[in-house]
Amino acid sequence: MTASTTPLDIARSLTTLYLVIVSGTVLALVVLSLAAPPQAPAEAWIHAMIVLVLGVLLPLRLRRARQGRRTALRASGLIAAVLLLANVIEALVPGLFPAWMRLEMVMIAILMAGILVCVARAAARADRAGEAA
């Protein structure tokens, strides 16, 4: 992290990677629905759509957090925490999702853990800045 790179800059980069993964998942589901339907069950579609909606909300909240909004910082952390827990739990349920999607869930969980660390660091910085004022 360079002197000008903030934790929220890193969180934004991780969120971009998250959106790429989610977009790839939806594209894979479209292809698999046509080519190998058992690899694209209804549960996978439901999961992908929920993750996609949260994928739209997360960058919006992060943008507001970068503008100094504490509530947006909290919301970003909450979204990341929910995605982390949901993806870990769903990846651990045997037979619920195809193996390729379970791998995607683990990758998302890792990204969300990184975003949580970044949000916590940003909140700590904001608290220190508030104490100094």
Describe this structure in words.
This is Peptidoglycan/LPS O-acetylase OafA/YrhL. The chain crosses the membrane at residues 16-36, 42-60, 72-93, 105-124. The protein has 133 residues and is mainly α. It has one domain (7-127). 83% of the residues lie in helices and 0% in strands. It contains four helices and no strands. α1 (7-35) runs antiparallel to α2. The longest helix is centred in the C-terminal third of the chain and has 34 residues, at 99-132. 27% of the residues are buried. The mean pLDDT is 92.
User: How many angstroms does the end-to-end distance come to?
Assistant: 25 Å
> From N to C, what is the helix and strand string?
HHHH
Largest sheet: none
Mean pLDDT: 92
Number of strands: 0
- The quaternary structure here is single chain
Number of helices: 4
What fraction of the residues are assigned to beta strands by DSSP? under 5%
What would you report as the Rg, rounded to the nearest angstrom? Answer: 17 Å
Overall form? elongated
Write down the domain tally: 1
Q: Please state the structural category.
A: mainly alpha
Poorly predicted sequence stretches spanning 5 or more consecutive residues:
none
Percent in helix: over 70%
Task: Compose a concise summary of this entry.
Keywords: Membrane, Transmembrane, Transmembrane helix. By secondary structure, the protein is mostly helical. The protein has one domain (7-127).
